[in-house]
C-alpha cells in the first residue's frame, strides 16, 4: 500500500464513507433497521428493527427482527434470529486452522493471502462454519463463539464466556470453555415455549400481552390452553 493510499484511509474519511453507505442501506431496507457510526455491514440481511450499534463489523450474516447488536462486535458467517440481545465486544469471527497438517499456516491450504501471499491454488481446508444463534438469546459482554456452534432458543451466555459447543434451549452457559450451569425454566415449561413460539406472533399480540412476559407461571397458565 502506498503512502497516498494510507493517508486516504484516515478515520474521518472512513467514518464519512460508512455513514453515507449505512444511510442508503437503511433507506433501501425500509424496515426500520438501524446501523451505528463506523459500523461496516456487508453481504448481510437486516430484518425488521434490527439494530446495529457503533463500530460493528458484520459480514455475510443475517440479523432477525428486533435483534440488537451492541458496540464493537465482530461477526461473520452468522445467522442471528429474532429478539436477541448481543452484548459489547461479541466475536463470531474466527477462522479454523488444520491441526493434522504439517503446518497450521494458511499459506499452505488457503488462497486467501492472509499474509499477502499464498502457495495454495485453491482451498484445501474448510476454514469457516456458520454460527447460528436462535430466538430470544441473550449474549453477555466479551463472549466468543467458535465456528459451527449453535445457540438454541432462549439460551443465555454469561459475560466473558468462550462457547466451543452447542448450547441447548433455555440453558445458561458460563465459563472458558462455556458449560451449562442450569436451565431457566422447568422442562415442561421449556417444551411449551418451544412449541408456542411467541417470537412468531404478531407484534400487536405482543403489545397487548407484554405484561404476561414478566412471569413465567402466569404466561404458561394464560396461554397453554
Features:
single chain; alpha/beta; 3 domains; eight-stranded mixed β-sheet
Structure commentary:
The chain has 225 residues and is α/β, with parallel strands linked by helices. The chain folds into three domains: 1-93 and 129-184, Hexapeptide repeat proteins (UDP N-Acetylglucosamine Acyltransferase, domain 1, 3 Solenoid); 96-128, no CATH class; 187-225, no CATH class. It is built from five helices and 19 strands. The strands form four sheets. Strands 1-4-7-10-13-16-18-19 form an eight-stranded mixed β-sheet. The mean pLDDT is 90.
At a glance:
This protein is α/β, with parallel strands linked by helices and 225 residues long.
Average pLDDT works out at 90
Got a strand count?
A: 19
Q: At the fourth CATH level, what is the homologous superfamily of the largest domain?
A: Hexapeptide repeat proteins
Tally of separate domains: 3
**Terminal-residue CA separation:** 65 Å
- Secondary-structure-derived class: alpha/beta
CATH topology of the largest domain: UDP N-Acetylglucosamine Acyltransferase, domain 1
Percent range for β-strand residues: 15-25%
Low-pLDDT runs of 5+ residues are: none
Using the CA coordinates, give the radius of gyration: 20 Å
Helix content: 10-25%
Largest sheet: 8 strands, mixed
In sequence order, what are the helices and strands, one letter per element?
Answer: HHEEEEEEEEEEEEEEEEEEEHHH
Strand order of the largest sheet: 1-4-7-10-13-16-18-19
Overall spatial form: globular
Gross CATH architecture of the largest domain: 3 Solenoid
For the record, what CATH class of the largest domain applies? Mainly Beta
Annotation field: number of helices: 5
Amino acid at each position: 500500500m502506498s503512502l497516498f493510499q494510507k493517508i486516504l484511509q484516515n478515520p474521518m474519511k472512513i467514518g464519512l464513507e460508512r455513514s453515507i453507505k449505512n444511510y442508503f442501506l437503511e433507506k433501501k431496507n425500509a424496515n426500520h433497521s438501524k446501523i451505528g457510526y463506523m459500523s461496516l455491514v456487508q453481504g448481510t440481511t437486516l430484518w425488521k428493527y434490527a439494530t446495529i450499534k457503533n463500530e460493528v463489523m458484520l459480514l455475510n450474516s443475517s440479523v432477525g427482527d428486533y435483534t440488537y447488536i451492541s458496540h464493537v462486535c465482530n461477526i461473520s458467517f452468522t445467522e442471528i434470529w429474532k429478539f436477541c440481545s448481543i452484548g459489547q465486544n461479541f466475536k463470531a469471527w474466527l477462522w479454523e486452522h488444520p491441526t493434522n497438517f504439517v503446518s497450521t499456516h494458511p499459506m499452505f491450504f488457503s488462497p486467501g493471502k492472509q499474509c499477502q501471499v499464498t502457495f495454495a491454488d485453491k482451498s484445501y481446508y474448510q476454514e469457516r462454519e456458520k454460527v447460528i444463534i436462535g430466538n430470544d438469546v441473550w449474549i453477555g459482554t466479551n463472549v466468543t463463539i467458535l465456528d459451527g456452534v449453535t445457540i438454541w432458543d432462549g439460551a443465555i451466555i454469561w459475560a466473558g464466556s468462550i462457547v466451543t459447543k452447542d448450547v441447548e434451549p433455555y440453558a445458561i452457559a458460563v465459563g472458558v470453555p462455556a458449560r451449562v450451569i442450569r436451565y431457566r425454566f422447568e422442562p415442561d415449561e421449556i417444551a411449551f415455549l418451544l412449541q408456542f413460539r411467541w417470537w412468531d406472533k404478531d407484534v400487536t399480540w405482543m403489545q397487548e400481552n407484554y405484561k404476561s412476559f414478566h412471569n413465567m407461571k402466569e404466561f404458561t397458565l394464560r396461554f397453554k390452553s
